[in-house]
Amino acid sequence: MKKIGFIDYYLDEWHANNYPKWIKERAAALGLSWTVAYAWADVDKNDGLTTAEWCEQQQVMQVATIEQLVQLSDAIIVLSPDHPEHHERLSQLALQSGKPVYMDKTFAPDVATALAMFSLAERHQTPLFSSSALRFADEIQAAARDFTPQSIGYASMMSPGKYSNYAVHPFEMVVTLMGTDIKRIKCHANEWGRQFIVAFHDGRQATVEQTASATFQATMATKTGEGQHIAQCSHMFENLIDAILQFFETPIVPVPKEETVVIMALIEAGSKALKQPDQWIEVMV
């Protein structure tokens, strides 16, 4: 049985609480031998389980140091999904290990940090990838097979959640379907919601709308007049876990670095656009 180690800011969070079970189930379905065996967290959650309690509940071994976890593990997942500002610090030893590393969304707080982490991984020949689960939804994957990025003239994405930890999801859909040739972004927002306009260098355009009660959806129009509406995003976590396990097994990175970096650039530029309504902000990589 091959062993996965979890590195987290604190372990009592939704991804860490669900990934061990899903990994066990999907590994069995794929005929692979992977399990979450080790865990380390920087702090205990103030209003939740301690690291020791989480490890006991999940039947995972608590290790004393990141060094020990990296040494024992065959592959590593760096979690902290809602605190990407800790990713660079928490992943330093993992990215120097040469072992496959999956970095949970959101990959980085800014482009500079994203590039630094990829650079460190490349220097040590450490396979590294990160993604929103939305990329792997059945419907998004089907659309990515059916349409080339350049064929989509306009797309509109909807998303729930706060910008701080959910912007990665609709922007991941934009880049998955329309590519990385993004020029600029602007925003219209009030206290109840926000809309972003994403402009590509060749005139193609996408919008992203976020409101609290929205569901993940996408609508696309091709340059030849075809259209498609994605009313739901199915099996995204099952497919994400499959992608992680196949990555650990091979280890072939399933998401190009360039796409992840552009998504971080969109998030960074979008943060500026929120503070400067109706003004174009260049998306810089």
From TrEMBL:
SUPFAM superfamilies given in the database record: NAD(P)-binding Rossmann-fold domains
The species this protein was found in: Paenibacillus yanchengensis
Protein name as annotated: Gfo/Idh/MocA family oxidoreductase
Lineage: Bacteria, Bacillati, Bacillota, Bacilli, Bacillales
One Pfam family this sequence matches: GFO_IDH_MocA
Domain Gfo/Idh/MocA-like oxidoreductase N-terminal span(s) in chain numbering: 53-128
